Amino acid sequence: MVKLTTELIQNSMQYMNPCRDRELDLRGYKIPQIENLGATLDQFDTIDFSDNDVRKLDGFPLLKRLKCLLLNNNRISLILTNNNITELGDLDPLATLPMLKTLSLMHNPVANKQHY
């Protein structure tokens, strides 16, 4: 596993993607934890963390420019606690996530439904 260091951020591929957004490519390093993103100096619209070992979405400084965060093929559990999910049907798109192991819906209206 590779630690997400300032050096890794500075040495990773940075480019203008087809949507004309500045993108930082951090794919495939097997990064276990998001950290040191302050080193980006908020220069990127998109950060690609695909194909890593990220387990939690934390360690984010204020990145006002960031519009898109790509996190496919990581080890993230879906935490939807304290949102406004009202119907079980709202969760149907999650059926396409075969590797999803944990789903937290605490403090959502759907948790009060019969047979939840």
UniProtKB/TrEMBL annotation:
Keyword Translocase (UniProt): no
Give GO cellular component annotations, separated by semicolons: U2 snRNP
| SUPFAM superfamilies associated with the record | L domain-like
User: Keywords of this protein's UniProt record, alphabetized?
Assistant: Leucine-rich repeat, Nucleus, Repeat, Ribonucleoprotein
Q: What is its subcellular localisation?
A: Nucleus
What InterPro entries does the database record attribute to this sequence? LRR_dom_sf (IPR032675), RU2A (IPR044640)
Q: What does the record give under GO molecular function?
A: U2 snRNA binding
Q: Does the keyword Oxidoreductase apply?
A: no
A Gene Ontology BP annotation from the UniProt entry: mRNA splicing, via spliceosome
The lineage's top-level taxon is Eukaryota
Concerning its family, UniProt says: Belongs to the U2 small nuclear ribonucleoprotein A family.
- Protein name (database record): U2 small nuclear ribonucleoprotein A
What lineage does the source organism belong to? Eukaryota, Metazoa, Ecdysozoa, Arthropoda, Hexapoda
